[in-house]
Amino acid sequence: MRESSTYGQHHHPHDELSEIQHLQNRNTNERLTNKYLSLCDSISEGFCVFQFVTDGNLDPVDCIFKEVNPAFERHTGLPDPVGRSLKEVVPAEYRHWMKYVRKLSSGSPVKFLDFSKKLGKWFEGTVFVFGEPEEHSIAIIFSDVTEKKKVEDELMESKKRYQSLIETNIDFIWEMDKYGRYNYCSPQIEKLWGFKPEDVIGKSTFDFLPQEEKERARELFKSAVSSPGDFSQFESTSYNRKGEIVYVETSGTPFFDNSGELLGFRGISRDITLRKKAEQDYMKSQLALKSSESKFRSIVETANEGICVVDEKLTIRYINGKLSEITGYSPDEVTGKNASEFLGKYDRFRLNRILVRINNNGKDDFKIMIVKKDGSCVTVLASTALIYDENGRKEGYMGMITDISARIAIDKDLKKTKKKLEIALNNGKIGTWEWTIRTNVVIWDTRMEEMFNLKPRTFEGTFSAFESRVHEEDLPHVRNAIREALLNGKPYEVVYRTIPVNGKSHYISSKALVMFSKKGNPVSLSGVAFDITDMKEGAENVMIKLNEELLRSNSDLRQFAAVASHDLQEPLRMIASYTQLLQQKYKDKLDKDAIDYINYAVGGSKRMYEMINALLAYSRVNSHGNNFESTDMNDVLEKVKDNLKLIIKEKDAVILNEKLPVLFADKNQMIQLLQNLIENSIKFCHESPRIHISSELVETNHVFSVEDNGIGIEPQYFEKIFRIFQRLHTPEHYKGAGIGLPVCRRIIERHSGKIWVKSEPGKGSTFFFYLPEENGGFLNFPLEI
Ligand code: ADP
């Protein structure tokens, strides 16, 4: 503390007594001064002494700093101001501070709490008169309370906030007596629960609690009293005015009178219905999450695909059962290891590129080779995506792993099969096509186009484009086949010709199946087509060749027949006539043996003559046949009876018949046919022959039967008897050349019919034959002898 010149001015007059007094006083004074000085130096408060200056009215107008203690500068931040006036030091606000000096006029100290704008600080202190009034000395003891003020302000602020808080919707404040009856309730209760304070004051809090909550609340109050203390955030339900359940959080404290007697409780209640609901929702969602997590887990565990989770450094965190099945490693064996360890060599190099793609796109599908535990490799398809933690940070990768080695093998097989099919289709000149009905799109492969003489990929692809390329004569039956296929689901199978290109048509054999919708409507027709031109031409060539051969052999036969009839007959006739001559002329001169020999020679040449004639007759069936005409078989039978009247009479044969139909046939041949059969029936009969002739329409054929009561035929000869010169008996027993039935068969065949026999030896035979009712086209038959 600096001493100003003011010190030492306090002197009193000296006398003897007063000298002692003075000395005493001086001692006391010194002691006091020392005490004062050390006090001033050591106190933490700022301290200063002023001498104020007055104006004409003796009102203080300024102050001169006389003394300051070391704390002064600490509190004010002002350098030593001693000797200077307040006006000089804080010109802007010296007037402001002078008001406290003026207030001192009453003599009693003045307290202040004030803010210095210049210094930016709050000061709290006391101004008091220092020394005698006439000295115009005052002192200020003060401290910088800026920090304290701040805290106080904050407190104030929070008080205010608290105030506004209790006036908001969230809380209401209450006080209740020791029985739980409301003494007070802040008006917010109305906003919250619909009650006005007067609705609840005087009523028990228990009246507003649901039954099950009353007991809990009672316990709460009891324990707050028995071991006095606050209760806080007690959650309960309560009824609002509408009778709805609301959630309340209550904090409170019991209060007592001076003697410790419980007076009641004070507290605050807060509506937490919204929070509660949110919590419940959260719990629900948490539960849902849990269950969906467990669901997720069970899906992942049992998935039919391998699943793998790796972190950013590709350290394996998880693999599921399927992946461990694919790789042969158990989850424990791989967890914690780097995924790249399990990849094929080449794929390890590719890995970085793959990761870049995943990181850029968030996901990527790639094929990769995994080395299994047993050292073998498996190709898998990995669909991999980035995964993130709950804060959205990249956490690693998750991959769905599908073993595609089987698929690759199948693909290979499929490729092979496709190739084979392709080869087959190509070599077999098989085209494939499909017609989608709704869109009327017809798809042809290039082989189809080739068959239709089109350049590859020039077919227009519609149904009418197809039809326009079918030979117009064949179009009707193509359309018909398609209609049948679409309407009745019949397989489409048709042969048609293409329109001629350079005068040449292709023969196409096409087969297809109809695809039906679930409802049964035809959707499409898809099939194959073969170019059968070569086959057809080949077959035709064969036919022509065969025909030629037949014609040649026919003409050979014809020549033979001519030879037989003329050239052979001539020498035969000579043999016959000379042996007859020999017989007649020398029959008396020759011995019996010679005559027998000559007779044999005559018989033989006669027989040969007959046979040659039979052969001629046989060959004439075709070569000398007449045109077909309407032939009444009743007339034919009459003619036959007439021809055979001698033998009929001789053998006393009876011929009966049903009404016979009219046929379109060669009339003469019909006579020949019936005559041969009836003649045989009469001939091969021991008793008087009974013959029955009838006809029956079976489907479109008239089946004739000639039934007799003759000797019958053993079944093993049913076929043989129709062959040329085949006879069952020697000529001595039954005359004949063995040509009758072969001629019959030839006639029947010329009429596109059939002949056969049924017989029982000893009982009789029945010969059947039929001629088709319509045998049109037969006339054009190219083969003739
Ligand atoms: P053929 O009458 O000149 O002997 P066919 O060709 O007419 O020659 O008959 C061949 C053979 O069939 C006859 O020899 C005979 O054995 C047998 N045959 C034909 N018709 C009859 C019939 N109605 N009853 C029994 N046998 C018959």
The gyration radius over C-alpha positions equals 70 Å
Largest sheet: 5 strands, antiparallel
Shape: rod-shaped
Q: Which band does the percent of strand residues land in?
A: 25-35%
Mean of all residue-level pLDDT scores: 82
**Number of discrete helical segments:** 22
Count of beta strands: 27
Largest sheet, spatial ordering of strands: 2-1-5-4-3
Uncertain runs are: 1-14, 165-169, 775-785
* Ions and ligands: adenosine-5'-diphosphate
Structural class from helices and strands? alpha+beta
Binned, the helix content reads: 40-55%
Give the termini distance in whole angstroms.
169 Å
Task: Describe the 3D structure.
This protein starts with 15 loop residues before the first helix and ends in a 13-residue tail after the last strand. Strands 2-1-5-4-3 form a 5-stranded antiparallel sheet, sandwiched between helices. With 785 residues, it is α+β, with helices and mostly antiparallel strands. It contains 22 helices and 27 strands. The longest helix is centred in the C-terminal third of the chain and has 54 residues, at 533-586. The structure holds adenosine-5'-diphosphate (ADP). Adenosine-5'-diphosphate is lined by residues 680-681, 684, 708, 710-713, 721, 727-729, 734, 736-741, 765.
